[in-house]
Amino acid sequence: MPRTTPGSAPEPAPSVAELEAQERALVFRRFTHDDAWALGSLLVGLARARQAPVAIDIHRAGQQLFHAALPGSTPDNDAWIARKRRVVERYGASSYLVGTRFRAKGTTFEDSSRLDPDTYAAHGGSFPIRVEDVGVVGAVTVSGLPQLQDHRFVVAALEQFLKV
């Protein structure tokens, strides 16, 4: 997971095109309960190795298949997970991509979506679980890091899991 150090420039945010390319590349052939457990376990292992204070959640078709709260995470992380996941479910795209699309138009999700910000959050960390020839069936979500790091953490785990 990239980090900035004092005095270094912040990481550039990915473009809409880069984020859309990630979503085209990170597609499952199938997504079972066992896949949710394996992906969730991979995320936990990566988070533990980095001592990341995150909560991790995987939903499919309205059912929570995996959840873990690591040391340093709080109940607020669960609230953020729910809000970010709802964006994925509504838009069929990662929560970070949705927010980036609004910013690219010179506005914000909060100002222009007409959705309740207590219910929806277009902040990085929730990524669609897309199955070939099916579409979006769920979301994998992480909360606890700055939003770009949450997004990149999920993407890196999906790339490893899917061997992309």
UniProtKB/TrEMBL annotation:
Highest taxon, organism lineage: Bacteria
InterPro entries on file: PduO/GlcC-like (IPR005624), PduO/GlcC-like_sf (IPR038084), YBR137W-like (IPR010371)
Family in the record: Belongs to the UPF0303 family.
Stated name of the protein: UPF0303 protein GQF42_17965
Native organism: Streptomyces broussonetiae
Phylogenetic lineage: Bacteria, Bacillati, Actinomycetota, Actinomycetes, Kitasatosporales
